[in-house]
Structures are given as structure tokens and as C-alpha cells.
Amino acid sequence: MAAISLSLSPNPSFTTTTTHKPSHSLSTPTFLKFPTESPSTIKSLTHAPLPHTPTPTPRATFSTRAAASTTPSTTFHGLCYVLGDNIDTDQIIPAEYLTLVPSNPSEYEKLGSYALCGLPDAHSTRFVTPGETKSKYSIIIAGANFGCGSSREHAPVALGAAGVAAVVAESYARIFFRNSVATGEVYPLESEVRVCEECKTGDVVSIELSESRLINHTTGKEYTLKPIGDAGPVIRAGGIFAYAREAGMIPTLTSS
Amino acid sequence: MAACSTVAPPSTSFISNKKDLGLSAFSSASPLSSQKCKRTSKTVCSVTAPKQSERKPVTTGSVKTGMTMTEKIFARASEKTQLSPGENVWVNVDVLMTHDVCGPGSFGIFKKEFGQNAKVWDREKIVIIPDHYIFTSDERANRNVDILRDFCTEQNIKYFYDIKDLGNFKANPDYKGVCHVALAQEGHCRPGEVLLGTDSHTCTAGAFGQFATGIGNTDAGFVLGTGKLLLKVPPTLRFVMDGEMPDYLLAKDLILQIIGEISVSGATYKAMEFVGSTVESLSMEERMTLCNMVVEAGGKNGIVPADSTTYKYLEDKTSVPYEPVYSDDKARFLSEYRFDISKLEPLVAKPHSPDNRALARECKDVKIDRVYIGSCTGGKTEDFMAAAKVFLASGKKVKVPTFLVPATQKVWMDVYGLPVPGSGGKTCSQIFEEAGCDTPASPSCGACLGGPKDTYARLNEPKVCVSTTNRNFPGRMGHKEGEIYLASPYTAAASALTGYVTDPREFLQ
């Protein structure tokens, strides 16, 4: 399943052959995720407990409780948006919006406002209400081959920017899965059964990551998720760069 | 219709493992295919393995366990002698390609992560090709090309195919057009190498016997700084295509057949290796079409063993030494599919999925509004030659608007300069004009992926289009309710002549 499975052991040839010396730096290692937002409790997971500040946005409430060990217990809670099979990246973010550069903070936010606007009109409940920048749905539930098509990283970025914390799908297209992990924007979780047949858009759901469990509070049903495995720590760190720094694989930039 | 079969155990000894997997994969094919596909006769069962003599151990892999060519490229690029599918390795990248849609974001990540004054790992191994949103008044799209230019100047990037004069592409000698076709034409595709690009159709370059795949901005930012990326070694599906290819078929029909067979996720995470006498007979451009659409089956990469056709194509395009690799006789494949191409018929993929396969003749009652010939998949010189051949054979005029977008400046020159065989010296452009097609447009990705609202030939209304492009998901060419039939250039041209989806045999026989 996992498209990417990072080993904690640094690769010697990698560190020794990096030629350039970064001279400037960034103060925040997790900037990739939230270029526009103030440090919030949402999604910027660390291994330490975070103060839980209620936010006015309707996105997932999200908490991290440090257990006795270093394994954090992560829970997402919110409304779900339900989709079928083969949702391709053109539907997640239509090509006309690819002029928006995800690494540019204001354009990152705009990408979120267009998330899933490529869905055919038959989807009468829109994912992002026109005029809003964020979705009220923080969890997407879908069928097989979610995120197929173009390699545009704008796709997981648009979902993350719209406030999505996790996608639960039967399976993923390779590049979407990898981009989700590399950016740390959303958790791409796999279900063991076709949950999309049993949930409805607007159902209240929770995901307990450490238990690999999805709970639909509206229907009272529970589902087992496939473990996220080694990709989990990468997403939790805030993407592949933040993870590689935490793991000592690449140097932490310091202000000169 | 399509003669397709999984390997027939008694008649073939090419590989001995995992035939059962092939069968199980086969059974998951669409209902259409399972009804229509017949076991082939066993007439086509001989596959010539690439010759193994006179190769150094590094190319043959002098190891106990056989490896596929994809595994060997991974092994060489990660400086290991032996690899198995599933292993994660740091791979040295030979070429990184990016374009105007994903370049600015990749540069942004590179600068944030490696520092504002950081230098790329190798200025000669990065190829930057503006191609997506070029001929548009969209200010952000124009700005993105400016961002590419600034970065290339600052980093002294050797291969940047710039465009400044949007009014006349011919005034920009450096400008190429569609990145995947330009990469090949400019000699950046070489056997045995690793090519990564911020575009899912980067897999096109597998036609050259190299590993090529699409990556996201963040991964590209990492590669820009380090020249390396952590990649998982994919298992390989092998597709053996034998038999003489009928003259009404093109490689597009072959790949639509395969995607219809294994579905849009049938090759997810996997390499797709194409071999057999039919593949050997294909030109480089046709091999590119074959590999181009592996991503539509979820594939990580497509790959064709390099041969004399490859070497001839590369002769005047690159002076960089390269070393091809070939799958070992004992290489392990996840499954093997066999096709007798001589029995295949022209195909389309109906809306809204590339695996929604049907025979072109089964769709003869589908009325269409327009035809589009272009893109990395179907906008190469030979694609236009094929369309011209159909128009020439019919001597008639098109019944629906027919849009032509050459992939690159080189293709455009060929359309206007090369004589079409059997035409008495006419060029494609003359034949297109006589047939009543729209004038060939400026080379770019065009309307294949919709793009900004003012993109030429964009589907701005809910129309039905037969297209030589690669995807027909809802909204792909612009309008969410538009309907796209993916087809070969032959089928597209035939359909333009009738105004309905049309089997090209109506004009070619």
C-alpha cells in the first residue's frame, strides 16, 4: 500500500554528496503546510501535547495526546464528504486553476476555495460553499483509485488548504498518495471495505489514527482502516522535508 | 475483437512464474473485455528475448536472481547490484524536467527548503520546458513563465526552452512546446537513465528504455537540491504484443486495448514493460504513445527495450554516452499478458474513463461535435501524418470543426514541410486545408487539459469531442459535462469526416 516508506536511517551517500551549502533558512520547519496561517493546533502535529484552541473554522477538530510513549494518539473529527471511484485530479482541482502556485501563501488559500469544484453538477452538495475559502467537510470518503490522473501536487494541496485532514478511500493512485505524504497535507488512509457505500455526505465521523479506525457517529458503524505505516510519521512531521530534518537526514537550516 | 490472452502455459516457456497472477488480473477486466476477448490461437507464442551476448555484467546483471530492466535501472541508479520490487532506494536522477504549471511551485519549495541562495544540484541535468499555458492572456499563466525564466537565469540552467513573443511562436527559436515530445526531440531521453518530471506523462520517455515517471512539486524541490529521490522499486507487468499490426491500427489502439484490459488502476505502483514483435516494429514516436498512457492504467512507468530503432533515433540527438539495460531471461514478472495484434480492431475509450473501451465501429451512432488532434499522446509528426493519410484517402471534407495542435515547433515544421507519402508531394497542412480543418495552431499542450478559458479549442460548452489525447475524465478538456472519446489519429480523422465516431477502415480500405 504505502507508496513511500521512509527509513529512519540516514543514507550516507545522500548526505555526503549534497554539494551546496544552504546559507539561508527558514525559521519554521512546518511552513510547507500552512504558509498562510498562524501556527494553529490543526494538523501541525508534533509529538508533544498541543494546547487545543477552538477555532471558528468548521474544519476538523483535531487533537494530539502524547501517550506515555512517543506515539501520539491522533483523532480527526468532523463532517464527511462522500465520493465514488476514480476521482481524478482534474475533478479535485481543474486545470484552469493550476496557474495558482501552491508555495505562494495567498494562492495556496485560493487553491483551497476551488477544491473539488471540478465535480460534475450531479454532485448537488458542493464541497466548498461558493464564496468560502474552506470546506465544512474535513474528511473525504471515497471509493477506489482516488486521485488518479495528473501528477499535480495542487490536488492534495487544494484539499489540505480547504481544511481536509484525511481522505479515506478504498485505494489511491500512486502519485496522489505520494504527493499527500510528501507535502503532509492530508492523511491518505485506506479502508478495508467500501465505506463510501455506507456513508452519506454530512455524516459525522471520527478517525482514530492509532487504532486505524473510522467511526460514523451518524449511523453508529465502525470500520477498520489499513495502517498508514511509515508514511504516518512523515505526514505528522509536516511533509518529507520536515521529516527528513527531524530524522537528521538533511541539515536543519539556521539563520546566518 | 481484440485478440487478447494471458499467457497460455503449454505453448510458452518465456517465463515460468506467476502465470496464475496473469489470469487473475485478466478476470478483473471490464465486462466488455471478458465477453469479447478470445483466447488467441497459439500461432503467436514466440517471443524473442533481447540478445544477451556481448554485454558487460553491469547490463546483464551478473547475479543469482534475474532482474527486469526497470529493476536494473534502479540498481544502477542506486549503486546496488541487486534489488527486488518493494525495496525503497535513493536513486540518482539523470534528468529532472519541469514546466510552467509545476516549475514555479517546485522552485518555491526548493528555495524555502534549501535557502534563498541555494544552487541546484546540477545545472546541466535540469530541463525546463514551458508548454502548458502559453498562448493565453491569463496574467498568472504568463507570470509563471516569467518565474521559470528568472529561475533559469539565476541558476544558469543549461536547457531552458523559453518563449517571450507569445504573438508568434516562430519568433522564439528556443521554444519547443509539449515537454514530453520536446524531451525526446532534444535528446534528453536516453536508455538506462532515470528521468523524473513534474508531469504524470513523463512516463512517455520509457519508450527509450529508461525509467521515467511523474512526481509532485515537493519531490521535485528535493531533487533540485540533491539530485536524488527515494523511490520504491516497482514490480513489472509484461505485455507481449505479437503479430503484424494491421495498417488501420496505431499504437494508441494498443494502449487503449491494454488499459481496457487491466483498468485505470490495474498497474498502480507497477512498471509496464512492452515487448514482442509488434513492439519491435513500432517507430520511436509510436513507442512513445504506448508508454505515454501507462499512467492511465495507474502505472509508475512504461518501458520498451532499446534496439536499433532507438539508436537510430538518438544518433543525431545526443552525444551523451548511454548504456541500455535489458530484462534477464530469469527476471520475475508479476504477470504477463499476450496480445495477437493482427486481430485487434480500432478502439475508443468512451466517456468518462480511459478504460471505458469500445470498438470504434460499435460507437458509429455517436454523433460528435468536434475533433481534436494534439497533445503529448497524439500530437506528434506521425500522428498528423496518420490523420492526413485518412483525409487523403477519402478526398472528402470534414463535417465537424477539426482542431489541430502540433505538440512542438518541430512537429509544426513537419506538418508544414514534410510530404505525405502517396500524395504527390502535398504536406499535411495542405491536406488539412483541403479537408476543411482548422489551421494548425501554435504548439503547446493546448486544450488537452482544458486550461485557461481562452485556450484554443478548449471545450467551453458541453460538446462531444473525439480526441487523440490521453484522458476523458469529467471536465478534462474544459467543460464538466463535455464528452470525450479517446481515439487514434486514424479514428479521429475518420470521425471528423463523418461527424460520428467512425472506424478508420471506412476510409483506409
TrEMBL record, chain A:
- Compartment list: Plastid, Chloroplast stroma
Gene field: LOC110757182
Question: Which SUPFAM superfamilies does its entry note?
Answer: LeuD/IlvD-like
Output this protein's name.
Answer: 3-isopropylmalate dehydratase
- Give positions of region: Disordered: 1-60
The UniProt family comment states: Belongs to the LeuD family. LeuD type 2 subfamily.
UniProt EC number: 4.2.1.33
Source organism per entry reads: Prunus avium (Cherry)
Oligomeric state and interaction partners are given as: Heterodimer of the large LEUC/IIL1 subunit and the small LEUD (SSU1, SSU2 or SSU3) subunits.
Q: Look up the record and name the pathway of this protein.
A: Amino-acid biosynthesis; L-leucine biosynthesis; L-leucine from 3-methyl-2-oxobutanoate: step 2/4
| A single cellular component GO annotation | chloroplast stroma
From TrEMBL, chain B:
GO MF entries: 3-isopropylmalate dehydratase activity; 4 iron, 4 sulfur cluster binding; metal ion binding
Keyword Transcription regulation listed? The answer is no
Establish whether keyword Iron-sulfur is in the entry: yes
What's in the keyword line of the UniProt record? Answer: 4Fe-4S, Iron, Iron-sulfur, Lyase, Metal-binding
Question: Which gene is transcribed and translated to give this protein?
Answer: LOC110756355
User: How is this protein named in the record?
Assistant: 3-isopropylmalate dehydratase large subunit, chloroplastic
- Coiled coil regions, renumbered to chain: none
Name the InterPro entries for this protein.
Acnase/IPM_dHydase_lsu_aba_1/3 (IPR015931), Acoase/IPM_deHydtase_lsu_aba (IPR001030), Aconitase_4Fe-4S_dom (IPR036008), Homoacnase/IPMdehydase_lsu (IPR006251), IPM_dehydratase_rel_enz (IPR050067), IPMI_cat (IPR033941)
Q: What NCBIfam families does the annotation carry?
A: hacA_fam, PRK00402.1
Q: Any idea where the Aconitase/3-isopropylmalate dehydratase large subunit alpha/beta/alpha domain is?
A: 72-358, 362-499
Q: Which domain of life is it from?
A: Eukaryota
The record's CDD domains line, in alphabetical order, gives: IPMI
